[in-house]
Here is the input.
Amino acid sequence: RNSGKPKRTRIVLVGFSMGGIIAANYAAKSKEQSGLAGALSFSGTLCSGKMLLPCPSAAVSLSVWQPLLAWGLKATIIKPSMSKFAKRGVTSFEVEEVETVVDVDTKLVCKYHGYPTVDDYYRDMSAGGSGDEEGIERLRGTKVPLLTCHAIDDPIAIFEVALADQIEKTENVMLLATKHGGHIGWPAGIYPSSNRFGFMMDVAMEFSAAVAEEE
Here is the structure.
């Protein structure tokens, strides 16, 4: 029976990068049925389609950082699972052609999962869809507190993906934007290596405590 009220627990879903995208998308799509007290996304995207914008930050992401990530994805995930990709019509030649993460999504992920275009894939995977009115309406469907934490200088998932100008149209979605922090980085102190995940852990624990107390 659906009473219309969120079925809340004391579970807070926390995701980093792709995990953050999944956490936010789940919170938005599941609406009252998420079973969460809240969701937190670090360096994820609310609109992955913004990665395709013709802007300097996207160009740097594509040319500098994404090739390194694409190489890692091919080596650790795609090639070891090549038999599964081959069953979906993905060839070794297509894998070798991949140079960026956008290439991975366009040439491999879309073909594997049956998305007609990368725009369709990005629209489906993002809590805010394409960032248009339809996407913002989906984001408004988030019925539990959703905090997205994003650095303005993120070199991989450019800041535009956080939909900073659109979040105010929602009731339960919040943005914590920092001037610096990179991509799931946020180094702190003179010796950052001694406090590697301190910022993210502090935010996660404080956010979790707050939404649990509200519950």
The chain has a mean pLDDT of 94.
